[in-house]
Design goal:
Blueprint (H helix, E strand, L loop, with lengths): L10 E9 L9 E9 L9 E7 L6 E7 L7 E8 L5 E9 L14 E8 L7 E9 L3 E2 L4 E9 L9 E7 L2 E8 L8 E8 L5 E8 L15 E9 L26
Parallel strand pairs: 9-15
Antiparallel strand pairs: 1-2, 2-5, 3-4, 3-6, 6-7, 8-10, 10-13, 11-12, 11-14, 14-15
């Protein structure tokens, strides 16, 4: 009696998943196929598996080859690609698409799944506020400059980045903005500045100086304010004046 070998095999796509679980537009991801032989036998010959994706030219996304399939095991393969658009896509996975394996059921070799591709994350880092303390800065006295770095877009910024403070073009200091900055939330930075001579200055805070964050608007990362440093007051021994010109007033302390 001849035995019909096709009764020993029945290939089926049992799972379709994406890695990462939520792919994003413009980012590479994998579609993973898991294939099983529903019969309790081993397949000792190879077979091709094909993936089709709606929205691609010809719908063909990729293929992978199985060199066989042992009883009790499943075959998994990953097919990488990148989508230039976001939205819903239909995935069609076909096992043994060349009909190389004679199966008891040739009608269950195709499986479908809808996958959703999210738009790329949107970040917009800005310096929302910049100020100094105290309000009046005296020459040669240390003061603090503070500024707030905020995210004005929808997506949470996953990683940390650096913001810097400048006096004109001169570096004054920096701070690290920790990851996890959500929309509308800000991180306050403080830079201690050594005393400056009397005069007018320009302070500039710059967020994401190293361009680590891919932003929707790279042109709004700076904020500039003016700073006026007052002349250091002279204490007069007889208390007749709050300040004096130490070059011309004879009653100024000898230290000036």
């Amino acid at each position: 009696v001849l035995r019909d070998a096709s009764r020993d095999y029945d290939l089926k796509v049992i799972n379709i998943l994406t890695e990462p679980a939520q792919p994003k537009q413009g980012e590479s991801f994998n579609v993973v196929l898991e294939i099983d032989n529903l019969k309790p036998t081993s397949i000792n010959k190879g077979f091709n598996n094909k993936l089709k994706l709606s929205g691609l030219n010809g719908n063909f996304a990729g293929e992978c080859y199985a060199h066989g399939l042992s009883d009790g095991k499943t075959f998994s393969c990953s097919i990488p690609f990148t989508l230039s658009g976001f939205g819903s896509y239909s995935v069609e996975a076909v096992t043994d698409y060349g009909d190389n394996i004679a199966e008891v059921d040739e009608g269950n070799n195709i499986e479908y799944r809808a996958i959703k591709v999210d738009p790329p994350p949107r970040y917009d880092v800005v310096v929302s506020s910049l100020w100094f303390e105290p309000v009046k800065i005296i020459a040669e006295q240390q003061f603090n400059v503070k500024f707030i770095v905020a995210n004005f877009e929808e997506s949470v910024i996953p990683g940390s980045f650096i913001a810097r403070l400048y006096k004109g073009g001169d570096y004054l200091g920096e701070c690290i903005i920790p990851g996890g900055l959500t929309k509308g939330k800000g991180h306050t930075c403080m830079v201690a500045v050594s005393g400056l001579p009397a005069g007018g200055y320009s302070l500039k805070a710059v967020a994401d100086v190293n361009k680590e964050i891919n932003e929707v608007d790279e042109g709004n990362n700076e904020k500039i304010i003016g700073l006026q440093v007052a002349v250091k007051p002279c204490e007069v021994p007889d208390g007749s004046s709050a300040s004096c010109d130490c070059n011309y007033h004879s009653d100024c302390p000898s230290a000036f």
